[in-house]
Amino acid sequence: MDLDFSDEDITRYSRHILLGEVGGTGQARLRAARVLVVGAGGLGSPLLLYLAAAGIGTIGVVDDDHVELSNLQRQIAHRTADLGRAKADSAADAARAINPGISLVTHPTRLDPDNALALVSAYDIVCDGTDNFATRFLLSDACVLARRTLVSAAVLRFEGQLATFKPHAAGDLPCYRCLYPEPPPAGLVQSCGEAGVLGAVTGVMGTLQATEVLKEVLGIGDTLAGRLLIWDALAMRFRTIRLRRDPACPACGAAATLHDLSHHRLAAPAPACAV
Amino acid sequence: MTNRLMLTLNGEPRELPSPLTVAGLLAAIGLDTRKVAVERNEEIVPRSAYHATHLASGDALEIVHFIGGG
Q1: What residue ranges do the domains of chain A occupy?
Q2: Single pTM value for the model
Q3: Which of A62, A224, A267, A270 is the least buried, fewest Cβ under 10 Å from its Cβ?
Q4: Which of A111, A130, A132, A180 should we substitute to test contact with B (largest number of B Cβ atoms within 10 Å)?
Q5: What is the CATH number of domain A33-265?
Q6: A73 reaches B (C-beta below 8 A)
Q7: Are A3 and A28 in contact (CB under 8 A)?
């Protein structure tokens, strides 16, 4: 691994390099890493900004939306002056302004069954910050098929959930479908557009998501894989629950039935956070 | 004579008739299985095991709501 850093980078990352768990080697690992952020919204904003600031060498941003006024209460990578711009571009500009030394790749497209596998395969770690169940299940299935680690966060109202899924790793670890086997029928679960979300809750969850991505890249601490973190902001209570692989999981179980993404072409989108 | 189960559901004590499975509990409290996950003693019960998982007195259960906002 290339351990050469410019004097400027040694200063920029000095507070990381001081950490025994990171050091110069860890910082070089971060620089060599490729991370895909799917959704440049409430979760994706802080996630992207912290990954960029931390010096992740290559970050992809997938979002096909444009910045709207109702986004700005929580999607802090975008500014009022960005209204109407493509979110992937606006968020990438915000990340570049923090750290011009990294590579940002914008994918101003909707994740779909035709592009999902190629997109996730081009990165080491994938982050789900999307706002709808159709994309969440598509992204999870693509990560299982491509054997990519998925760090997944979700929010609604005053609640957040976070989990790391890597069923390809040792230890019979679960995937997203082991927790939620299939998308809820349209209309059964409220969206943020219907139920609202406290802006700061997306900030906390996106920042926790960034922390778990950095831990996965660095290989430090206890992985969140095999656990689900639930945060109730009103009660200010964090809980961590054990999550095992479901032997009957259609994506990663012993008799898995999902071997490609073709079933997603039939799925009707169920918005979870339409705004 | 019916046995009673003493459970803790979402932090509150609940008394329910025995025997009871996770599927039976969700039906008894009127929750659609498609929008929740069930945590039993700090572990998620796979949905495929709802009918086979029998609850015991002392079990602590929490309902985890399916959320997907970003």
Answers
A1: 33-265
A2: 0.94
A3: A267
A4: A180
A5: 3.40.50.720
A6: no
A7: yes
